Amino acid sequence: MVTAAEPGWLYVDEATHKELFQDLRNNFIHTNVKGKEHDPDLEAYAYRMLNDASKSIKFSYFEVATVSANTTNGVKVTRQNKSYQCIDINNQPTQYFIEKLFEDINLEMVYIPGGEFQMGTDDQEIKKLCKQYTIDYFKRESPQHEVIIKPFFMGKYPVTQAQWQEVASHFQKANKQLNPDPSYFKGANRPVEGVSWDDAVEFCLRLSNHTKREYHLPSEAQWEYACRAGTTTPFHFGETITTDLANYDGNYIYGNGVKGSYRGETTEVGSFKVANNFGLYDMHGNVWEWCQDHGHNSYNAAPMDESVWIDITTDSNIRMLRGGSWGFNPGYCRSASRVNFLFGFSAVVGFRVVCSGAART
Predict the structure, then answer these.
(1) Which secondary-structure segment (H or E) carries 124?
(2) Among 3, 55, 214, 321, which is disulfide-ready with 356 (CB 3.0 to 4.6 Å)?
(3) Are 205 and 175 in contact (CB under 8 A)?
(4) Are 191 and 269 in contact (CB under 8 A)?
């Protein structure tokens, strides 16, 4: 099997693996050695090859959750196991690879299949948001528009402090020095925070130069598409959210949700043990995440694909944030929520990376 990078694995569910193995067996034994099926040496060789191939195929399971809520019964969370599939809806291989940074410090990258989606928030939802929070900030999420996305790889989690420290301390500088320990809330497996936009770009450049693969911050379109993972609701969990599944300010509610915990700090990545349908964790809350795009107050004239929205008429020091954080109410943690942010002010900001998958020369 060909994976996106080494070391890496192709992940399939058990049923797909059995079908794939049987198909490989039939094709190899009865096609590649046709006419010699009864040669014991060739058949033994074929089985050895099949067994070696099967060892490179591993199963990877993750859990997703759906949140439903109403005024009578409160919030109900339904959990479901999923697995990385060999074949996606476009009949293309779904892959996952691990970028080894140092010994046991790895960067896990998940394949995001291409597709189309409605980016932004519809007018009816924006009216409810503006009424609930008594501000019209949310109007920058309109007009809702269709966007076509090409496949890419995205970090399974926000970049952690361990990953940041390794790159900042030991990877060759591209353009600027990096503080190896910028985070206020310490923890190797917590997301790095206190990172400026320039810092995040430097991290990606160092990683690209070191690995010979193109790493960069996501565009807004890539980020929202990856967060939604095929959903059209405010959160990939559904119409509302709960602090049992994400880290945000639980003193506030969204829709028919209920109040929850306010932790007042970051949590370790993946600690809620629930992902979206693409297998990405912590897309709602924990830390805001940098995107490449310049700041814009609406989607008028926005790209219709995954392109980064660069506009020389805007302040280049303003970039876009996505995802909300531990200190913000759930309205800011929605899939479509977007914030214009001065990239030098970054106390609650981290990021995750995107990889094009193409090798650099």
Answers:
(1) helix 123-133
(2) 214
(3) yes
(4) yes
Return the closest-CA partner of residue 323 out of 218, 230, 223. Answer: 223
Please check whether residue 112 is in contact with residue 276, taking contact to mean a CB–CB distance below 8 angstroms. no
Q: Helix-strand-coil percent breakdown of the chain, rounded to 5?
A: 25, 25, 50
* Cβ atoms 96, 8 nearer than 8 A: yes
Helix (H, G, I), strand (E, B) or coil at 23: helix
Q: What is the pLDDT of residue 48?
A: 56
**CATH number of the domain within which 193 lies:** 3.90.1580.10
Torsions phi, psi for 212 (to 5 deg):
65, 25
| pLDDT (0 to 100) of residue 68 | 76
- Same domain? 51 vs 154: no
- When mean pLDDT is compared across 26-30, 47-51, 136-140, 146-150, the lowest value belongs to 26-30
When computed from its CA atoms, the radius of gyration of the chain, rounded to whole angstroms, is: 22
Helix (H) or strand (E) holding 225: helix 220-228
Using CA atoms, how far apart are residues 75 and 237, in angstroms rounded to an integer?
12
What's the number of domains the chain is made of?
2
- Amino acid 113 reads P
Residue type, 188: A
Residue type present at position 295: G
- Using DSSP, state whether 82 is helix, strand or coil: strand
| Strands laid side by side in the 318-322 sheet | 339-342, 318-322, 288-294, 349-350
The H-or-E segment that residue 14 falls in is helix 14-27
Residue type present at position 265: E
Mean pLDDT of 332-343: 86
Which residues span the domain enclosing 187? 61-359
CA–CA distance, 56 with 132 (Å, rounded to integer): 51
Domain match, 185 and 253 both: yes
How far is 260 from 56, CA to CA, in rounded Å? 43
- Can you give the three-state secondary structure of 30-55, one letter per residue? HHHCCCCCCCHHHHHHHHHHHHHHHH
What's residue 6's pLDDT?
A: 31
